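Work through what follows:
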Amino acid sequence: MDALRGIAAISVAWFHFTQNGGMLGDGWVKAISAYGWLGVEVFFVISGFILPHALHQGSYKLRDYPRFIARRLIRLEPPYLASLAVAIALGYATNLVPGFRGRQFETSASDVLLHVGYLAPLFGVEWIVPAYWSLAIEFQYYLLIGLVFPAISHTRPIVRVAGFAFLSALCVTVPSQLCVSHWIPLFALGIIVYQLRVGLLPPRIFPAVLAIAACAAWLKLGILVALVGTASAVAIAYLQLRSPLACWLGDVSYSLYLLHVPLGERVALASRRIANAHGIAASVVALLVSLAGAYLLNRLVEEPAQRAAAGLRYAGGGGRYSAGQTASDSPAVLQHG
């Protein structure tokens, strides 16, 4: 899981470094890097698995919903808001660079408040950091999974089927890409793996159910997304890759996702234009600087937030399962709860 989160975060970062601003000329490196955006879809599958799994471990009940949302906010908002502050500061600092000819950065207090609630696009406001769009989808998923978890985790199969029927109806009736409903097939792939892991789905049935979810993803999101999502689900279900590097990348994956655009893209462009670095070299420098920034954000903000969130326990008194790790989370944006 750590390796998958780390790979997903690096893939998205590398995509932005190599595809924006004419960093690379046409060639095989740019062609392969063009698929890095799929890392976001991998994050959705991971969140689909890890969050219900953590709720299961924490003996979550519907009465715990307010506390569950509070844990998510305590876990995720501090690093998100810190990255937002970094993005705003760097945006205005860039305006002051002599010879800067790009679009002038500007924002307002109302725009920032809409970012705090992940509401910017619903009010026609551009994201200060474009990558934030997936955080809005993840947050909507948190709101949703806390409500439907009792159904998808029920011991009676008919109730679990009803839960998936509700999710399917939501996917069909609310098609906007700004809403979690559009991405439900990917989250469902992860939920199915959760059911396998906790014994709600027999192993002999798992391939058939996974195939149904994969077909839904194909119809809704396209064959490429469906293939990547299904492969991610299979990897979560069956593969274990543990190494110090993989664990570290998993730990900083959320912070890396938050910082790679406001910090990394500026480093890439500066390396390219000021130092006249080759596009690939500039992208590597940007990735390394982003990883360093992610490490600092993780240690200074994310880890304290994670510890604070872990202190909130559900009324069911289940084992302490760290309050938040998702795809967007680091040890995801992995200890959910």
Q: What stands out?
A: The chain has a mean pLDDT of 90. Residues 2-95+135-310 form one domain. Residues 279-310 form the longest helix (32 residues). The radius of gyration is 20 Å.
